[in-house]
């Protein structure tokens, strides 16, 4: 999916919501345990009820890889289900890959060719040759970790060099030499608040993938105040706050309501543009 198509979906649906499919079998309703594939059954229900309110889905690979071949089969079925029944939705594999060039090329082949996702999260620590293999695919995206919402982000991302430049600022500036706003996004945690103003100073036109709204306490209004641009430029992710809204048989109804609540707030923010 290219940028124009993504923006069209955002303004058509009046939403820039991304639903995170961080499916933990210990947190899904017990009523699903008798299913042949509880993870896929859970994902399928979540997708069906939230699809009207979101434009993207983001399965976190750790929640599938931890179950070995069965987990990866659940992931693959989830992607195929989205491609068949919801082809207008943007699919992000949250894998946080990043390695030497030939290894990154194999990761790119895995996720873009084999699984056919639209985007992949990538850690930039190993530099240019670890990123560029992902940028060689037409209408595919690399989403680079820039300023995350976890406590440990303080350990490296906000450290200064001798000229006073913060590490995340260096990442934003340097990576733009390799890609563009048409194939590169950045992860910026919603809990970073006013730091979005600094992000936009260095990356004024790029899409930002924003986790941390909902269960992690990030403010949608603050993110939009500092981060939204004329074509939106945001994909705001909510995982636990939506998919685990209920552990009972009504989990689909509860998830739909949480997604709808966020979509309605996003519609208000889009009207301001």
Index terms:
eight-stranded parallel β-barrel, alpha/beta, 273 residues, 12 helices, 8 strands
Task: Give structural notes.
The chain is built from twelve helices and eight strands. The protein has an eight-stranded parallel beta barrel, surrounded by six helices.
Q: How would you summarize the topology of this molecule?
A:
Elements: H1 3-13, E1 17-21, H2 38-50, E2 56-59, H3 62-65, H4 68-85, E3 90-97, H5 101-114, E4 119-122, H6 128-131, E5 141-147, H7 153-156, H8 167-175, E6 184-188, H9 195-202, E7 207-210, H10 220-227, E8 234-238, H11 240-243, H12 251-271
Parallel strand pairs: 1-2, 1-8, 2-3, 3-4, 4-5, 5-6, 6-7, 7-8
Approximate helicity band: 40-55%
Shape: globular
N-to-C series of helices and strands: HEHEHHEHEHEHHEHEHEHH
Radius of gyration: 18 Å
Q: pLDDT under 50 segments (min length 5)? A: none
Mean pLDDT across every amino acid position: 94
Oligomer: single chain
Terminal CA distance: 23 Å
Helix run count: 12
């Amino acid at each position: 999916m290219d940028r124009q198509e993504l923006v069209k979906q955002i303004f058509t649906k009046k939403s820039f919501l991304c639903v995170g499919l961080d499916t933990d079998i210990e947190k899904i309703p017990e009523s699903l345990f008798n299913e042949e594939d509880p993870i896929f059954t859970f994902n399928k229900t979540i997708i069906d009820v939230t699809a009207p309110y979101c434009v993207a889905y983001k399965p976190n690979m750790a929640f599938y890889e931890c179950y070995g071949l069965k987990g990866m089969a659940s992931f693959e079925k989830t992607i195929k289900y989205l491609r068949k029944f919801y082809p207008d939705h943007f699919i992000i594999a949250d894998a946080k890959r990043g390695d030497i060039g030939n290894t990154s090329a194999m990761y790119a082949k895995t996720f873009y060719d084999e699984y056919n996702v639209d985007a992949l999260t990538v850690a930039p620590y190993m530099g240019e040759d670890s990123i560029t293999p992902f940028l060689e695919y037409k209408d595919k995206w690399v989403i680079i970790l820039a300023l995350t919402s976890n406590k440990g982000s303080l350990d490296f991302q906000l450290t200064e060099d001798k000229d006073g430049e913060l590490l995340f600022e260096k990442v934003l500036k340097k990576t733009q030499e390799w890609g563009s706003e048409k194939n590169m996004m950045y992860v910026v945690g919603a809990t970073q608040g006013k730091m979005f103003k600094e992000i936009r100073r260095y990356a004024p036109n790029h899409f930002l993938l924003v986790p941390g709204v909902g269960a992690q306490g990030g403010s949608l209004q603050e993110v939009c105040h500092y981060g939204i641009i004329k074509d939106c430029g945001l994909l705001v992710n909510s995982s636990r706050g939506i998919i685990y809204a209920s552990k009972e048989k009504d989990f689909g109804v509860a998830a739909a309501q949480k997604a709808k609540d966020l979509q309605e707030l996003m519609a208000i923010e889009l009207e301001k543009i």
